[in-house]
Amino acid sequence: MSQKSLGLIETYGLLAGVEAADAAVKSANVELVGYELSKGSGMTTIKVEGDVGAVKAAIQAAQVAAEKVGRVAAVRVIARPAAGIEMLVRNGDTVGYQPPEPPAPPAPEPEGPAGDGGAGPEEGSEEAAEPSPNRAARRSKSKGSGRTTKKSGETV
Q1: Which of 56, 75, 99, 131 is spaced 20 to 30 Å from 20 by Cα?
Q2: What is the number of alpha carbons within 13 Å of residue 7 lying toward its C-beta?
Q3: pLDDT by residue (tens digit) across 1-42?
Q4: What percent of the chain has pLDDT over 70?
Q5: Which CATH number is associated with domain 5-89?
Q6: Where are the domains of the chain?
């Protein structure tokens, strides 16, 4: 958790939880980690993090706001949580938490035509798009111009 404090407020019902989260992030400089819905009891746990003083102020404001619209089951501020509880705070049940994406694997290097060691022009470059002069000359010789000569009547 990189030395950030953790604040938790557990409410009965989602409405009180949303009210608590709103009050927490508006009252102090804290980041909303997300919320977690308990299974079966209708409780919502709101999770915030930030500096110790900011988290304390945010949780106090959240408690007051949630008690206006519902019931608060528990509140807690953990000043410097141990690294081992990270998986309890940020997990698959935490709604709103987006785990960081793993870094993309490096792209494989493009290989050139076989036999030249990959030193050929890259696809899409101007050098690859234009035919070589020798290739153009061979094409014109093999295809012919489609004209007939006056003397022999042969197609050139």
Answers
A1: 99
A2: 25
A3: 457 899 999 999 999 999 999 999 999 999 999 888 888 888
A4: 67
A5: 3.30.70.1710
A6: 5-89
